[in-house]
Automatic annotation (TrEMBL), chain A:
Belongs to the ATG10 family. Keywords: Autophagy, Transferase, Ubl conjugation pathway. This is Ubiquitin-like-conjugating enzyme ATG10. The keyword Transferase applies. PANTHER family: UBIQUITIN-LIKE-CONJUGATING ENZYME ATG10 (PTHR14957:SF1). It comes from the Eukaryota. GO terms for cellular component: cytosol. One of its GO terms (molecular function) is Atg12 conjugating enzyme activity.
Automatic annotation (TrEMBL), chain B:
This is Autophagy protein 5. GO terms for molecular function: Atg8-family ligase activity. Residues 197-285 form the Autophagy protein ATG5 UblB domain. It comes from the Eukaryota. Conjugated with ATG12. One of its GO terms (cellular component) is mitochondria-associated endoplasmic reticulum membrane contact site. It comes from Dentiscutata erythropus. The lineage of its organism: Eukaryota, Fungi, Fungi incertae sedis, Mucoromycota, Glomeromycotina.
Length: 248, 289
């Protein structure tokens, strides 16, 4: 098993190797959402790992249909009186889509977790007779329709919906501006949220032994295990679980 | 407090750009402007950031009878339909978006025409944030990243007193050279030690990703690398030699602060003297005419 030359840091080349090994592990695993590799459309050397996930909000709120949403719809289909008779049902499992990207940082020489969360799946109760295509909806269950509105979650929404309540305070107060902030995606040059990488090297050092005498612990994580180990540590903060299959 | 005298950093600090801000015409009508609203002119430091000017620009257009009650963070800028990244320094945005070669025969596009928008913030293209606070956070995270590149840790910045950290931003914000450089000097000089890597970013035309590679300032024999060496190393196709091309106007050139620096300057010297306040050398590469 190849070790990184300067653990806990990776070179760009080592990242690319580690990434491809990680993707193979993901394909072999029982994970329903495997990770894949994306290259920049024109320039070499800017590839990254990505996956799209449907994520359940950590703080389920009772969702009640806002009446305004319906009054804007064609009157022929929903009459005013229909609105009042619509049941407003609390829905506990609200989902949204998250694009997760694992991108190499040339400054910090470690992988960085980038993500954008979209309000793609806001459940409402299907009013009788409404054609789903009018809402640009996707039917995920018989009664609940998911509106694909594609708007980005704001920073506050990310904290309250994606970050575990017990971790929110720690993450909000880390660094200059909390550990989660927005930055241009290094390959795509569009805004993405990211977990600040300045402590990643320290974290990766803390999980290995610093003593050659200690035979029970590794002195460095090999390239094969680097990304799954790193992701299992940092990913949980924003809703990523690395299933045990990746390690077997 | 005064900063060490350095005519180069002083000249860069004092560099300004006249900018002409015009309203988006369709938005102007939607926001209740009855007549054509005259543009607003500002002479902004190249090292400054757009969010630092937003409240002044907003006040002008609201005073000109624009009906806008939203937050400053809703306001954004574009040039020829391309939204301007507010977290880039203004001078970098100018060099990048005008693509103006200082060695060309035509006059520079000044004042720089920029369109102001009060509606439809493009969250898919621009970072949405709370104006000035977010600019400060961005600025500090760039300074921290520069420190990490130079020293392999962010200790130098994190060990600055709270007061010194604030002074960096306050100095930039209030255009106070001494306030800013008396603290920043300690960071860029790096206690006289050769940095591990040079904090620099290279911007290419046609929406290429920004190039930011770990650039060592010396070669394996300990000789200092020049700007030309670095450009040749990172972009061998555009800079086939570390030395200037004979056919100057047909060759790509690096542009920093609106000037073409000599390729023979040592990269460490460039970093210490020509960096933007965020401690990065932001180099725009413009192709041949």
């Amino acid at each position: 098993m190849a070790l990184p030359d300067h653990y806990p840091f990776l070179t760009r080349k080592e990242f690319d190797i580690a990434a491809k090994l990680f993707i193979e592990q993901s394909k072999r695993s029982s994970d329903e959402e495997p990770w894949s590799w994306v290259e920049h459309e024109k320039v070499k050397g800017f590839g990254y790992i990505c996956r799209k996930s449907l994520v359940k909000r950590v703080n389920p709120v009772n969702f009640i249909i806002p009446e305004n949403d319906f009054t804007q719809i064609d009157d022929e289909i929903i009459e005013e009186e229909d609105l009042n008779s619509l049941p407003t049902v609390p829905v506990s499992d609200e989902y949204f889509t998250v694009d997760y990207h694992i991108v190499y940082s040339t400054s910090y020489k470690v992988p960085v977790l980038y993500f954008n969360a979209y309000n793609s799946a806001k459940p409402v109760v299907a009013p009788y007779g409404v054609k789903p295509e009018l809402f640009h909806m996707e039917i995920l269950s018989q009664k609940i329709l998911y509106i694909l509105d594609g708007t980005l979650l704001t920073n506050d929404e990310i904290y309250s919906n994606l970050v575990h309540p017990l971790k929110q305070n720690d993450i909000k107060t880390a660094g200059f501006n909390g550990a989660i902030s927005q930055q241009d995606h290094p390959t795509l040059l569009i805004p993405f949220y990211y977990l600040h990488p300045c402590e990643t090297a320290t974290l990766m050092t803390s999980i290995v032994s610093n003593s050659k005498m200690d035979n029970n612990k590794l002195q460095a994580i090999p390239l094969e295990g680097y990304i799954r180990s790193w992701l299992s540590l940092v990913g949980s903060v924003v809703g990523i679980k690395v299933v045990i299959d990746y390690f077997i | 407090m005064t900063a060490p005298q350095n005519p180069i950093t002083r000249a860069i600090w004092d560099g300004t750009l006249p900018i002409k801000f015009s309203l988006d015409s369709t938005e102007a009508a939607a926001l209740g402007a009855k007549a054509i609203v005259e543009p607003y002119f500002i002479e902004a430091p190249r090292c400054s950031y757009f969010p630092l000017w937003t409240s002044q620009i907003r006040k002008y257009f609201v005073d000109m009878a624009l009906n806008f009650i939203g937050d400053d963070a809703e306001i954004w800028y574009d040039v020829d339909g391309t939204p301007l990244k507010w977290h880039y320094p203004i001078g970098l945005l100018y060099d990048l978006h005008t693509g103006y070669r200082p060695d060309s025969n035509s006059p520079p596009p000044l004042p720089w025409p920029v369109t102001v928008h009060f509606k439809n913030f493009p969250t898919d293209k621009l970072i949405k944030a709370q104006a000035i606070d977010a600019t400060q956070d961005f600025f500090m995270s760039m300074i921290k990243e520069a420190d990490f590149l130079r020293n392999g840790s962010t200790k130098k910045v994190m060990n600055l007193s709270k007061n010194d950290q604030t002074q960096l931003w306050d100095g930039l914000w209030s255009k106070n050279y001494d306030k800013f450089w008396s603290v920043n000097y300690r960071l860029v000089i790096n206690d006289g030690q050769m940095p591990k890597h040079v904090p620099m970013r290279i911007y290419l035309p046609d929406n290429c990703p920004v190039i930011q590679e770990p650039i060592s300032p010396i070669d394996e024999n300990g000789n200092q690398l020049t700007l030309g060496d670095v450009l040749h190393q990172v972009l061998p196709e555009l800079f086939p030699s570390p030395l200037p091309s004979e056919n100057a106007s047909a060759a790509p050139v690096p542009v920093i602060h609106g000037i073409i620096p000599q390729l023979e300057i040592p990269i460490v010297w460039a970093s210490q003297n020509l960096c933007y306040p965020d401690n990065f050398l932001h180099i725009v590469v413009l192709l041949g005419i």
